[in-house]
Design a protein that fits this description.
- The protein is of the alpha/beta class.
- It has 14 helices and 14 strands.
- Bound molecules: zinc ion.
- Zinc ion binds next to helix 11.
């Protein structure tokens, strides 16, 4: 019996081989038939961040959506953990320091976007830079404006999260993610996006019409500032599941897979306002975006989907379930972030690393490792492909 883990065939090698000979095509087909999940290794990594989404927020959303807690799509993921969120300078973090920890594996002070502060102040390698360096396509999707702290920490460097012009300049001229979807303005504008050779879309219709092709780089900036809350949104805005689906279509045409970060950015804003109805409706949409990725993943084993949060907001406690379609009775402890651990849910490649209590910097390591091949080519496997 062949151990499936021994079979590793790089996507590039397969395509090169297939192009070369008819025999190659037959062998590649045979490999694909015998080992459907191992025939092509993409190592795609998809990270979902619910900004401010603590365990009680998730619980409340399940009650509202289905009448009982524990019922959102990602809550059935096989591997789950609690994540500690402290920044370098405080037990209570902000989105900049928390996202930097996940993106770079380093704790920094609040307000800092992927720079060694405290420390020498040098740029810390972000996940977009790391994965792009591996030949992967990269994308950032959010419901906040795209230069906001969470996406920024994945592809920009600045000592101050409010330096939107610097963040936009890093996106467009330095790190250059292939997909940038979110609210517009705040450093981003059509002229600079076009001159950086991005295809630009600015509403739901133009996003929907966009056709994926290899090498396509898209900036989709919808409105100015944050996109509206789900319950206030006009239909000229794409929703988070639509943006996620389009991002997957655009990213999934490279030879080496991709990295995608999707943020439900307004969960935090609703929690700051202690507005439970907005919290649950934002989380439900966020969960629908996760479902898009799950459906797209199918039964492939070379892909990691990890869902987590950057910090808890509001000190939320669910008191009473009021059943499906009704917001539960809740108590809020604060209008600010707290130091409560946040949940993480993982499925797919390397997901078993998500268990117990993790630090937010561990998320970085889990994501990076997930893109590594299952195992180096075994000699017998290599012989089979000749
Ligand atoms: Zn916040």
């Amino acid at each position: 019996m062949v151990d499936i883990r021994l079979v590793f065939v790089d996507r590039k090698i397969v395509s090169k081989f297939v192009r070369k000979s008819a025999l190659g095509i037959r062998v590649a087909l045979l490999i694909a038939f015998l080992f459907p999940s191992a025939a092509v290794f993409a190592g795609d990594v998809i990270l979902f961040i619910g900004d401010g989404m603590g365990a009680e927020h998730v619980k409340a959303a399940g009650m509202y959506l289905n009448g009982s807690p524990g019922t959102l799509a990602f809550e059935s993921f096989p591997h789950q953990a609690h994540v500690l969120t402290a920044s370098a300078d405080n037990d209570v973090t902000d989105s900049a320091a928390a996202a930097t920890a996940m993106s770079t594996g380093r704790k920094v002070n609040r307000g800092v976007i992927s720079k060694a502060i405290p420390g020498g102040g040098e740029n810390l390698e972000t996940l977009v830079e790391y994965f792009a360096g591996k030949g992967k396509r990269t994308g950032l999707v959010t419901t906040t404006f795209i230069t906001h702290a969470t996406p920024a920490a994945f592809a920009a460097h600045t000592g101050n999260r409010s330096n939107y012009n610097d963040i936009a300049d890093d996106y467009l001229n330095n790190t250059r993610p292939d997909v940038l979807f979110g609210g517009g303005g705040r450093g981003m504008n059509r002229d600079s996006e076009v001159s950086a050779e991005y295809t630009v879309v600015d509403d739901r219709t133009s996003l929907t019409a966009l056709k994926s092709k290899p090498g396509l780089r898209v900036s989709g900036q919808f409105g100015r500032g944050h996109t509206p809350f789900v319950i206030d949104r006009k239909n000229t805005y794409p929703d988070l599941p639509e943006m996620t689906k389009k991002a997957l279509q655009i990213l999934d045409n490279g030879e080496n897979g991709f990295f995608l970060m999707v943020e439900g950015g307004l969960i935090d804003h609703a929690a700051h306002a202690n507005h439970i109805h907005r919290v649950v409706t934002e989380i439900i949409e966020f969960s629908e975006a996760v479902e898009i990725a799950l459906k797209w993943r199918g039964d492939r084993s070379d892909i990691l989907i990890l869902v987590t949060a950057d910090h808890e907001t509001g000190g939320l406690k669910v008191i009473k379930n009021n059943g499906k379609g009704k917001t539960p009775v809740v108590e809020w402890a604060t209008n600010h972030h707290t130091s409560a651990p946040v949940p993480a849910y993982a499925v797919g490649k390397n997901s078993e690393q998500a268990h117990g209590i993790l630090d937010n910097t561990d998320i970085h390591d889990i994501l990076k490792l997930a893109s590594e091949p299952l195992k180096r080519p075994d000699k017998s496997a290599a012989d089979t492909s000749r």
